[in-house]
Task: structure prediction
Amino acid sequence: MKMTDGGGYRASPAVLAQIVVHVSEWLPDIDDRCALLQSMGRDLAGSDVATAVCQIRRAELLLQQENQKGEEQQGAAAVDAALPLLVEVEERLVETAEVVPQEVSASCYRLLAQCYSTKKDLTRYQDAALKQRLRPVLWALEESPSRGWLPALLEATDDGDVEAVRAAGPLLQREPRLEHRQQLLEEKAATRALQAVCRSQRHLSMERAAAATHLSEDEAEQLVLRALARGAIDGHVDRSTLIVERVRPSPVGVLQLLPDIKKLDKWIENISEQDTRFAGQMESIISL
Result:
């Protein structure tokens, strides 16, 4: 909170959102709580974190209704109502310039995992569940004086930023256990970039694919063929044009590095005991 000129205190939007969440618990009816949170979420729309706090609690209440009713059809309706709120929250938290509290991000991914589990969407469930568990790991890495650059590299890989991944080459060379992963990361980033452009263009020339992935046309064509073979994209090539039918969701790219990252000495010093145990099980999870 900040002191105002009049000598009082003014709460930040994020703090106000937390207060509203607590006040809403006094209302006996879940629908009334959701209505209050929706109204305050609009009033606090200037803060992405504040809006996220209200929407996460609304989604949680909707899913609580699902558990109370226990009927499959009603439960599916509750998930369908909660899921768009959580997807919007995830987008806000990724794009916002505000500092996002760890518990807000963790709550979002926990509820997303619950929704995708109910909908039996295994790929998105794994993505959300693993992000929930990986966030503390990445935050701990960010605080590392020697390896604080790793989360940004992993984010650039998942975002399809090929140039940023290439630029990190000298940093990877400092880590003997990671330097051999440079090519893998560039491939992953280029595939993500290809998937991104395929979501908006269903007929993609190799020239356009090369421009999107920062590769030569021959390299882009080979990347397209590998993406089709792996199922990252559904479609076919017709006379040097990629005909896109569907772009498949991709798992969290950070997982491909964790078997190496977790072996680096002292990288988990700031991680809780529970997260340390999870990191130790990561190789078996990746092999599923």
